[in-house]
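Researcher: Good morning. I'm working through a list of sequences from a screen, and I'd like to move beyond sequence-only analysis. For each chain I'm collecting a predicted structure so we can compare shapes side by side. This is the next one on the list. No need for commentary yet; just the structure.
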Amino acid sequence: GASLAWLTAETDEVTNTFAIGNITIDLDETTSKYKIVPGATDDKDPKVTVKETSEKCYVYVTVENNLVIGTTVVGTPNIDPTKWEVVATKGNKTLYRYTEIVDAADEDQILAVFTKVTYDGDAITTENITLLKDQTIIIDAFAHQSDNTTQGVADAAAATWTGVTLNN
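Model: Good morning. Structure tokens for this chain:
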């Protein structure tokens, strides 16, 4: 009798576990009621917080400014154009994109939307100031992943979310 030997080999198994990416944002402001005084400026502090462990993302805000008399905007937030770029508008609602992609981080990242609202001292008069009673500035926030997508895709998603048409 002859004996045969077969060569064999085996490996340990490898398990692939998949985590799910996530983006978490908050929108906050310290005070939300203000008194309109023509020519005055109110300090404001709306801010978007991209929470720690969020994926890299584009961040958007909509600002619906209802401080309007007729067609004249009489209360203007000081949105910094070096930080927030206009993406789309519809009536009094403007969609802004933060000018930088917000990187993933080990801590919350706070993005100021604006810091002041100035009231037009010439357009607001004793006769028309009552038209501004209970008017509002409404702010909302949206984030979209930046990895494996384009800014155009993210802009379109943000425009759909807010119901505005992209600017050309």
